[in-house]
Amino acid sequence: MTDARTPHDAPLAPDELADRLTQVFALVGPLYRRVHRKVEQAAPLEGLSAGVRAVLDLLREHGPMTVPQMGRAQALSRQFVQRMVNEAAAQGLVEAIPNPAHQRSSLIRLTDAGGAAITAVLARERALLRQVGGDLSRADVDACTKVLARMLALFDDVDVN
Amino acid sequence: MTDARTPHDAPLAPDELADRLTQVFALVGPLYRRVHRKVEQAAPLEGLSAGVRAVLDLLREHGPMTVPQMGRAQALSRQFVQRMVNEAAAQGLVEAIPNPAHQRSSLIRLTDAGGAAITAVLARERALLRQVGGDLSRADVDACTKVLARMLALFDDVDVN
DNA sequence: GGAAAAATGACAACTTGGTTGTCATGAATG
DNA sequence: CATTCATGACAACCAAGTTGTCATTTTTCC
Fold it and tell me: Domains along chain A?
């Protein structure tokens, strides 16, 4: 994170912080919806729904996992993840391999096709994001990540199912 | 925004920027979903759906507007906004007043009840956000806002309908 | 001023992300 | 061993949001 400290780096008082974070969240909503829509519009091209995309992305970072593990990792219901995994499997993007640690719950792994697909999607997204020009510095982005992570942590305890 | 410049404030190269923004977006998704769920769980208490909440919030900041204006402001389909407005009107949170500039498309305005409702909701949300403790500085939050706004601008051209 | 084009309201069908419920079975735990 | 917990499979359901269509009103433009 940022360890070189900036001038107005004094931690904010909770009240003002809450105020500012409300503003941040007012941005998150529209951003999420717009990107979601844009991704959906492009989905037919790739053949990936947002859910499948998320599964592939997870497997790409974390390596093979079981369905319930993925659900917990993303705070999604296990049933939903299962559906997405089934869908991905039907498209040959993902496959089940025996789980040494559990006979019944097999590990899900990216196939070559799946790896290629998620790589392609990420590349397209990166290309889009490269158009966010301007004067954003590393410090800006780091701070953004930090703030969002902090907010996310607040909602960690929301248990699903 | 930040005008006092920090050490590592050099604008990032587009490639690295895209990389970092991908990470940012990986946070936005889960955050949005989690908050959405949490808000939904609390919704019965307030009787406000997320859509109605968004409409009230918009009217609170911008004052009376027509339905299509709201749709454009949030990049939502006019039909969807209309549905939310109807729902809000049915709950007495919102009312139509004559539009001097347009005979057919009336202005939508918060009622007293609507104002009270959105104020209460915002207060509750602020109370939650006040728990995001830690060392977040004004600079951090400003940077976050800046980054998100920049990303949002990229998707402004996504036309709806 | 009048004709064509765009904007609006109303209503309906549909898609998708996501949850909840249930049941049978296999795994962990006392 | 008995019980409890985790998993897969399947289904019903909900909410957010879009798309389509039609009639009417407004705007634009010749």
Answer: 45-129 (1.10.10.10)
